[in-house]
Amino acid sequence: MENTKEIVLVILVFLFLGCDSQKKYYDSHFNQISNTKDLKEIKLNLIRYENKLNIVSDYIIGVGGNDEKINFEKKGFLLQDSIYSSKIGSYQLVDNIIDVPTYTEMEKNTLYKDKNNIYYNATSRNSNYPYLILDLNVSESKILPGGYIKDSKTVYSYGGVVCTKIDSTDAKGFSVIQLKDTITNKVFYRGRNKKSIYWNESKMSIEDLKLLPIGRKQKDSLYKTFLLE
Amino acid sequence: MGVGVSFEKYQKIERKGTPTSVHFECTKITEYNIGVNETREVRFKVGGKNDDEKRSIKFDFSNSNISLSTSSWKAENEWILRTKITGKKNGTTVITVKVEDKTLNSITIHCVDYKDVFSEENVKRLIAENKISIADHTACIVAADKQLGKLLDNTSDFITNSSNNNADVYTAYKRVEQIKKKGFLANEKKFSQYVFKGGGNYQPKEYSEENKHAVSDYLKASINGKLGYHVFYFTILNGYHVLTLVINNQNPCDVKFKIYDQLRDRGEYVSLLEVDNKLLEMNTNNWSGAASLTRDKTASTKFGIWKIQRK
């Protein structure tokens, strides 16, 4: 009985600490914001702090062990007052770039847009400035299953461990194919255009295709794509 | 007609007890190089069998392109002569080794600034930056970028504490393209996922038969006999984690490496013989973590290693 009480107490302490870390906010220089009353929620993941508009993501840090395995811990939330634009190759102030009235969420905690831009959350695992502006035309952009977003000129893959532009692909003809894993029975997607099949951002090779756990009929159909190359 | 002696007798009569030669302790050194303003310890071995006899050994230089902290010794055969060598000016220096004022052999030293070889001082700056990254929990790709900036003493092309320098630091493969365009890459090796058995769709457990030494083979070829530190930017699991790898090839008979990232300090440098296993361990133990971030819950096992150079 006494042991049970102790276990419950430990769990409660952990829960309390866990909740506490969720409330911590850090500015774009990674300094913890002591007075969270200075933060003013504007819309979705937008917060005004010290008269500047900031875009907010989870603040996640990696912790390494002797076996080289990386574990991730959430420290709180990270504010970002400038944002990298892949369109112009430089950082812009969030205040100057985000149009708050038209700002909406496209995909939960991942993609956002306003009338001018699409914003991707690369997470603080991948960058000290988690959000970036994708080089896409907002009005033409379309999300495809499997973690792809494209306009008439450009395709981005964000279904892998990183979000990256797919180089030299025909964006207009780019689509996805739905496949079924014969081992797990789960549905998954691969990108494709006329001559290539993509696993996230990478062009698949014949060897990749051979290893895909899909039925023979689907595999044979995919082989035909390679014959076009 | 004079009476000759066999070479064997000549050796015994005339050269009995004197050192056979004085050369680098590490017999793998075929050509010694050092950069300008670089200082490192160098060890020479006195050849011949030890006969408990101390003799004067003196190094004479053909020019002043290099200097030694000690250039004369009283030493016995088989002893190790330790000194510090400093590169002063580019060019070749021939050291004439004299024993008891008689010329024994010569040693050639090249003072040359190889773009892809770094000094201990250069690497110390990278290490200092790495310590900051560990303390600050910097994102890996940013940490690696900052380390390279410090290594190259370059504040305009790499991220610094006060500037992001408009670097596209979201994926290693894209960032390395920028680094390459700026002229900081000496060479590169991209490893397909078939370096590992099974490749890609499953957690890698071992290298495929023909790739067991693929990483070390590339690194050794990249070092190419050049003495000093060699620095590499690398990523595992298609960009899941970005790191730097430093090889200490000051002594080719004991080549060591250490991996730097923001996660932890891995302690002492270890033998380069262990590098294949270390890369396998990193890919194996992080595959599930990488896969958990992807849509189809599998992770590509392709990875890349890029050698850094000065412009």
The major beta sheet of chain A can be summarized as: 6 strands, mixed
Please report the two chains with the greatest interface, counting residues with C-beta closer than 8 angstroms to the partner's C-beta: A-B, 48 and 45 residues
- Helix-and-strand structural type of chain A: alpha+beta
The helix content of chain A is 10-25%
Number of strands of chain A: 19
Would you give an account of this structure?
The complex is a heterodimer of chains A (229) and B (311). Chain A has 229 residues and is α+β, with helices and mostly antiparallel strands. Chain A has a domain at 1-97. Chain A is 19% helix and 37% strand. Chain A has 4 helices and 19 strands. Chain A has helices at residues 2-22, 94-97, 206-211, 216-228; strands at 25-26, 40-43, 46-49, 52-64, 70-80, 82-85, 90-93, 104-107, 111-113, 118-121, 131-133, 142-144, 148-150, 155-157, 164-165, 175-180, 187-192, 197-199, 202-203. In chain A, β3 and β4 form a beta hairpin. The longest helix of chain A is centred in the first third of the chain and has 21 residues, at 2-22. With 311 residues, chain B is α+β, with helices and mostly antiparallel strands. Chain B folds into 2 domains: 7-111, Immunoglobulin-like, CATH 2.60.40; 120-308. Chain B contains 6 helices and 15 strands. Chain B has helices spanning 7-14, 120-136, 140-151, 172-181, 214-223, 275-292, and strands spanning 22-24, 32-34, 39-46, 55-61, 66-68, 72-75, 80-87, 91-99, 102-111, 185-191, 228-236, 241-249, 256-260, 270-271, 303-308. In chain B, strands 10-15-11-12-13-14 form a 6-stranded antiparallel beta sheet, sandwiched between helices. A 5-stranded mixed beta sheet of chain B has the order 2-9-8-4-6, with no helix packed on it. In chain B, β8 and β9 (102-111) form a beta hairpin. Chain B is elongated. The model of chain B has no long low-confidence stretch (mean pLDDT 93). The interface between A and B is large, with 48 and 45 residues.
